[in-house]
Amino acid sequence: MDGFAKYLGRRLFQFFLVIFLGVSLAFLITNLSPVDPVEQSVALMTNFGATDPRSVELMRQALQELYGLQGSMLDQYLAFWGRVIRGDFGPSLSAFPTPVMSLIMSALPWTIGLLTLSLVITWTLGNLLGALAGYYRSNLLLKLSGAAVMALHPVPAYIIGLCLLLAFGFIWPILPISGGAQMNLQPGLTLDYLRSLIVHGTLPALTLVLVGLGSWFISMRSLVSNIVTDDHVVYAELGGVSSNKIFSQYVARNALLPQLTGLALSLGNVFGGAVITEFLFNYPGVGRLMIQGIYRGDYALVLGVTTISIIAVAVAVFIIDLIYPLIDPRVRLS
Amino acid sequence: MFKILRDMLRYNIEFAIGFVLTLSIFLFALAHFWAPLPDTAIYLLPPDMPPSAQYWFGTTSRGQDVLWQMSSAIWNTMLFGLTVTVLSRLLAVAVGMLSGYLGGRWDQALMTLNDTMIALPNIPILLLVYFVMRDSMSWPVLAATAALLGWNYDARLIRSVTLSLRNREFTRHAVFAGMSVPQILVRQHLPYVMPVIFFTAMNNLIWAIGLEVTLSVLGFSDINRPTIGGMIYWANQHQAIIAGIWWWIAFPIIAVVLLFLGLFLLAISVNEYIDPRSRLSRMGA
């Protein structure tokens, strides 16, 4: 139990450090930039016609207060932390007066759903294929499927998504290419709504799966082909243990440990892919929200989404860290 | 060097394909120095011409030749990728080697920072940087930002190599001979770390090019400078797919996929060459 407590303490420290540095970084980027967000927003709003200079001045003050840009840098920094903890990023400019936080909260379930589903599929399938390919090295079918997923792996999510969109949206139009569910359906636990959810999620999820599959395949295959030559495997083979059992208990289980660590490390990158994919398929998650915020010059929204996504990724990494001891007995027992 | 290259071309089919692909794309990109028209000029040619003998890959709705646009675009995209790779290698090597060699507290502090950076999502941070910089964003700034975010995986890898060198005999000899830490790292350890640097550089290049494509597809870079992502951005702006101008979007996609494939094949075959175990199994031992 002592080992577990130590492990947990270290992970917890790392978790808070990530959030501390990430939030500070978001603050620093917005504060050190040469562009003043208040002036930018004022320019955006006065674009449409001449405005009374006095009301512009009032607007400027109101925005400064809203964005928490009053006082010294340290005051602003502390105020920013207060806002992060309260979960209050002020109203969104492009969807005034909806608070940024409620926009994010309504988008977050979409992203979490899409990401969790595609990650589970990618990780399981990639590891299974990779382990099989590392164990049965001369199997032609495994070699071919390996070559296919490896060739897709370096291509960025946007390009793969665009090809899928062209293929299934234009050339052979069988899947919807935009939105998260059918517009005229009432959200709820009805069969129609669930079906529409699945159909709309297919292309974005498929994009993320195709992008992610290769890296799991490659690392799992090399892990397994190294473990296969280990003494304990050779001994088990000589002892007549069935090859199925060797594969699942002796080889794959050992190789899964670094892959679980890899999953935690890759989350930040995977989230980036999801941002782009959501935008491409107009999927109503936080990624689309952020890119729309950028196009519309919505300072509060962009800052809010960045901060929340940093925290969300940190939470997800921490959850995986908590799962790890369940699989690795050494952490539990040492 | 040339002997290794010759052997790998002869015995490693992946390397040979990757080498030929990358080289031909590089030569194609190089050709943009002899382009008949400046690459930023628009509406000089008849717009929306399909591929023909005169315009091999057709022309865009902005009156540009797709062939020459692609040539400059690949050049600019590769330039961006290489800049990111070189800058982030410097960081990764410095942090990784120092952390591995110094060990103890330094190692712990540097690696904690490293792991923290890995857990931060890159794309939202890059988008935030673009958002607050807006018009003052140029490609070198973007490259520097990407480099600051793209070194941490590889620093860990380099650290583990240095860690294993630290307790070797020759390191102790060097210490007794009075070499300073920078001297030991550069003269004694760097040659052993070089293969890892080279391998990670290939992967980092692929990552950086993917990043450039992603950001410029969204219009988050200098959109008047031709890049692969920028071409797709403009094609989307003119709704090329709906208007049926398929050549504007198909050829850049094909080019960038070929480039990725070439670089990736190079990366895995170099990795295999560095790892003696897989080299032996290829030779049939």
From TrEMBL, chain A:
GO terms for biological process: transmembrane transport. It holds the Pfam family BPD_transp_1. GO terms for cellular component: plasma membrane. Its main location: membrane. Signal peptide: none annotated. PROSITE patterns: ABC_TM1. Residues 108-324 form the ABC transmembrane type-1 domain. InterPro entries: MetI-like (IPR000515), MetI-like_sf (IPR035906). The chain crosses the membrane at residues 12-32, 110-136, 157-177, 197-218, 260-281, 301-324. It is found in: Cell membrane. It comes from the Bacteria. It is a multi-pass membrane protein. Keywords: Cell membrane, Membrane, Transmembrane, Transmembrane helix, Transport. Belongs to the binding-protein-dependent transport system permease family. PANTHER family: INNER MEMBRANE ABC TRANSPORTER (PTHR30465), OLIGOPEPTIDE ABC TRANSPORTER, PERMEASE PROTEIN (PTHR30465:SF55). This is ABC transporter permease subunit. It comes from Devosia marina.
TrEMBL record, chain B:
It is found in: Cell membrane. GO terms for biological process: transmembrane transport. The keyword Metal-binding does not apply. GO terms for cellular component: plasma membrane. InterPro entries: MetI-like, MetI-like_sf. The keyword Transport applies. Residues 74-267 form the ABC transmembrane type-1 domain. It is a multi-pass membrane protein. Keywords: Membrane, Transmembrane, Transmembrane helix, Transport. Its main location: membrane. Pfam families: BPD_transp_1. The chain crosses the membrane at residues 12-35, 78-104, 116-133, 139-158, 192-220, 241-268. PANTHER family: OLIGO/DIPEPTIDE TRANSPORT, PERMEASE PROTEIN (DPPC-2) (PTHR42729), OLIGO_DIPEPTIDE TRANSPORT, PERMEASE PROTEIN (DPPC-2) (PTHR42729:SF1). Belongs to the binding-protein-dependent transport system permease family. This is ABC transporter permease subunit. It comes from Devosia marina.
